[in-house]
Design a protein that fits this description.
By secondary structure, this protein is α/β, with parallel strands linked by helices. Helix content is 50%, strand content 15%. The protein has a six-stranded mixed sheet, with helices on both faces. It is found in: Membrane.
Length: 464
């Protein structure tokens, strides 16, 4: 191991972050509201004679199918809201946690949708003394809105199938992201059959008010925060590529300039979805973290070529226009609570932590940077300047990946011994992690064993 340090150069001084915590009451209020919507749905089902209909065999099957469909639709709208980029929701939970909930809620909603389809078909077939297949065909071809609902269900099946881990591993991010947009189509196509044939819609004013409000809030949030706000920020700040610098094998830094960037509510450690208007494929957004704190009217991202989107950045020309969506993320200095900070980075995961060095108190900060070799270190010169001029301690942990489950390179002592040698007081510090998912799991586990509580371990996952 070698220890060195670094300093930020040619940048405006960033204010020292003060320890803060997420708004607990807002977090609880948002969670309670989501739960309340499902209670409202069940109450509306009861109001529509859902319980009474359970008394008969086939009416009971149909009523249970209605309830499954109502809860499925409600969860589908919750799922849309989870990824609508509502600023106060994102700031409260963070995009990585919202993405995990989005996935869980999505699969639950999908399973309930299938349950709804099966039970409704069986219930109607039993009541009408028909064959199940014939009944299904009759429902699709003769009931108002059912052809659209079938197309919507097919779109949702496509989204779910491509969201299974085995399928995602075979898809490029760009392809997966495009297919995932069909979820909005599925939601939209399912609405007509609910309005025209849904018992709760046609028989209850209360239900109509609730569902129209729910659909309006979901659609409005997507339009406002996924489309209108990013469009306004892109037009207002007028970002464009200033220059592209090679940082090593397959790694480039893109420097961007814009207008009035001091009004952009972004902090070191956060990320944007970037769209570079350099030709075909520009419409696909890519999540890249800032690799330096914003300074003046300039931003910087640093990217390793790992796919079509990231590889093309090396060929960007000065003056290329840029669209942004964000900022997102909670890997910020304001979350720290301890009296010091330990940053643990692996590979390209150094980028948001490098940006954090611009805002963290230098004498209270230690960086442990894991890389395969000296040639794989990014920002080596910058980190060395941080050490020499500001007193930040930096440890480079070099070597190949070990066979066993450790976040350290092969040949190093135990996790506990390395943490004791490099950060003896780690139990009293906040720990920020960034790197591959499995590496972060191992590093977070080591930090917990060293006495760091969960609320002072900060990480974000960028997997899709």
């Amino acid at each position: 191991m070698s220890m060195t340090t670094a300093r930020r150069s040619q940048r405006r001084a960033a204010p020292t972050a003060t320890p803060t915590s997420a708004s607990g009451w807002l977090r609880d209020a948002i969670g309670a509201t989501a739960m309340l919507t499902m209670l409202v749905v069940v109450a509306l089902w009861v109001h529509g004679r859902g319980l009474q209909d359970l008394g008969g065999l086939w009416t009971g099957v149909t009523s249970a199918g209605r309830l499954a469909g109502l809860v499925s639709a409600d969860l589908l709208l919750v799922q849309v809201l989870l990824m609508a980029r509502v600023p106060w929701v994102e700031r409260t939970y963070g995009q990585d946690r919202l993405a995990r909930w989005h996935r869980l809620v999505g699969f639950t909603s999908f399973n309930l949708m299938l349950t709804h389809i099966v039970l409704i078909t069986i219930g109607y077939a039993g009541t009408g003394h028909m064959d199940v297949v014939a009944q299904a065909w009759q429902l699709v071809t003769t009931y108002p809105g059912m052809l659209l609902a079938t197309a919507g269900a097919a779109a949702l099946v496509l989204v779910v199938v491509t969201s299974v881990r085995a399928a995602r591993r075979r898809l490029r991010y760009e392809s997966w992201h495009l297919l995932h947009l069909y979820a909005y189509l599925g939601v939209g196509l399912s609405l007509p059959h609910e309005l025209w044939t849904g018992t709760e819609f046609v028989s209850s004013v209360l239900a109509q008010v609730y569902w129209w409000t729910a659909y309006g809030v979901a659609a409005g949030s997507v339009l406002a925060f996924r489309l209108a706000l990013p469009a306004w920020r892109s037009l207002y700040h007028r970002l464009e590529v200033e220059r592209v610098i090679s940082e090593g094998a397959g790694v480039v830094s893109v420097y961007l300039r814009g207008r009035n960037l001091s009004r952009l509510p972004v902090r070191a450690g956060q990320f944007f979805l970037w769209r570079f208007l350099d030709g075909p494929g520009w419409s696909r957004g890519h999540p890249y973290s800032l690799s330096a704190a914003p300074w003046g009217d300039q931003l910087r991202i640093t990217v390793k070529a790992a796919g079509d989107g990231s590889a093309r950045l090396a060929a960007l020309r000065p003056g290329t226009k840029v669209l942004i969506e964000g900022p997102y993320g909670q890997l910020v200095a304001a979350r720290r609570r301890g009296r010091g900070v330990a940053l643990l980075a692996c590979g390209i995961g150094i980028t948001p932590l490098r940006a954090l060095l611009d805002e963290l108190p230098p004498r209270q900060t230690v960086l442990l940077y894991r890389a395969r070799s000296e040639a794989d270190l990014i920002f080596r010169a910058e980190l060395d300047r941080f050490a020499a001029r500001r007193g930040i301690r930096v440890w480079y942990l070099l070597g190949s990946r070990p066979d066993g489950g450790s976040w350290l390179p092969a040949g190093y002592p135990s996790d506990r011994q390395v943490l004791h040698d490099t950060v003896p007081d780690i139990a009293h510090r906040d720990v920020y992690l960034c790197g591959p998912n499995d590496w972060m799991d191992l590093a977070a586990s080591a930090a917990r064993r060293a006495g760091v509580p969960d609320e002072r371990i900060h990480l974000e996952r960028f997997t899709w």
